[in-house]
Amino acid sequence: MKREDPGRIVYAPNYWQWLSHQQRHGMVPGPLASCTDQLDMLDYLGVDVFSRNIYCDQRRCWFGGLASVENSDFACETKEYEEVNGDLHIERTYHLPSGSLTERQRHIARESTLVQDEFLVNDYETQIELLEELVERRRWSFNLDMWRQWTARVGDRGIICAGELFSPLKLLHLVMGPEDTTFFLMDEPERAQAVLDAHEEAQLDLVRQMLAVGVRSMMAMDNLDTVFHTPQYVEQYCASFYQRVSSLCHEYDSTFFIHACGHQKENLGRIASYGVDGLEGVAYPPLGNVELDEAFEATGDRFLITGGISAMETRNLQSRQAVFDYVGDLFERLRPYRHRFLLAASCNTAINASWQTLLDFRDAWKELGCPE
Questions:
Q1: Are 167 and 220 spatial neighbours (Cβ–Cβ below 8 Å)?
Q2: What does the domain layout of the chain look like in residue ranges?
Q3: Exposure letters 287-310 (e unless 16+ CB within 10 A, then b)
Q4: How does pLDDT run across 158-203, given as a tens digit for each residue?
Q5: How many CB atoms lie within 10 A of CB 142?
Q6: Residue 282: in which H helix or E strand, if any?
């Protein structure tokens, strides 16, 4: 985090979905039989910890878990039922003074993937007042006890990155989907901006809570793909949020990351200019549109980037030699940026990756990235 060369490559993989899938389907490798969670697995492998999901419930959320909505003037009711095939259905209803909003999600057991079956807002023309009411009233409370428990477990072996934030634009993506977001911003620009502004202030309140208790790193889980985050949209609807969070974090010697997914090239310089410290999981071709060394050059000498191993590599590299060749080439290209690079997932580990492949990546890192 200090942009200093640690003398080796930092390796902080993301096995969150992979381990959950193995556990639920009775496929946990023997050496991991005693592991209760991802942190145990990271410890077994002897790798670094820089994680925003070791504390997350993989079946019930894409991110988060350290912050909860706490309001006295509306209630959130959650109902769940599980099918015989293991799929978990989740229904959340926000009971507001003027009415209710309901969303439905489903965790697909065979894929260990959470999907949105029904958005919270499916007709913004008739539900806009309820959306305004929800966003204006909603505030988050940071769970300090849970934070302390996890940081105590990690100790000095790494950093828990609090992946609790999401930008105003991501708010709309989450509650109504990217397509309706575009129409909403076009049809109701003033009311949409008021919703975005209210969300920004609520999120900044959460940022201040986290900084006050010593959170060293936090992340906005925005999936910064230019398909949905065009340069124009980022400048108009995200810039203020990113700049303000970055500024607050720097006052407390904390770092601010954004989760990146898909195409990043057109936004890299812009994101760095806002004071953001780094991007998590930058995707490279064919999943993305920029090579990692290009991304480092485009963002300046203080910008941190995590990534380098996509689900494609963990699934498709079938031999130890293929893994070593891939990692060796990657390390050679990124050697000049070792003070800003964290070898990690871009952005997850394939659920069908073999245990041997994960061991091969660990061994390649130790042999090629950690000189004696």
A1: yes
A2: 10-68+140-369, 71-138
A3: ebbbebbebbebbeeebbbbbbbb
A4: 999 999 999 999 999 999 999 999 999 999 999 999 999 999 999 9
A5: 21
A6: strand 278-282
DSSP assignment of 321-342, as one string?
Answer: HHHHHHHHHHHHHHGGGTTTEE
Place of tokens 């109902």: 79
- CB count in 10 Å sphere of residue 215: 23
Distances (CA, A) of 13 to 75, 106, 107, 150, 200: 37, 26, 23, 17, 30
Q: What does the alpha-carbon distance between residue 327 and residue 146 come to, in Å, rounded to a whole number?
A: 36
Looking at domain 10-68+140-369, which CATH architecture does it have? Answer: Alpha-Beta Barrel (3.20)
Joined tokens for residue 353: 């990756």
First to last CA, the chain: 22
Question: Which residues sit opposite 278 in a β-bridge?
Answer: 257, 304
**Is omega for the bond preceding 286 within 30 degrees of 0, making it cis?**
yes
Each residue of 80-114: pLDDT tens digit?
Answer: 999 999 999 999 999 999 999 999 999 999 999 99
Spatial separation of the C-alpha atoms in residues 92 and 74, rounded to whole Å: 13
pLDDT band at residue 372 under the 50/70/90 scheme: low
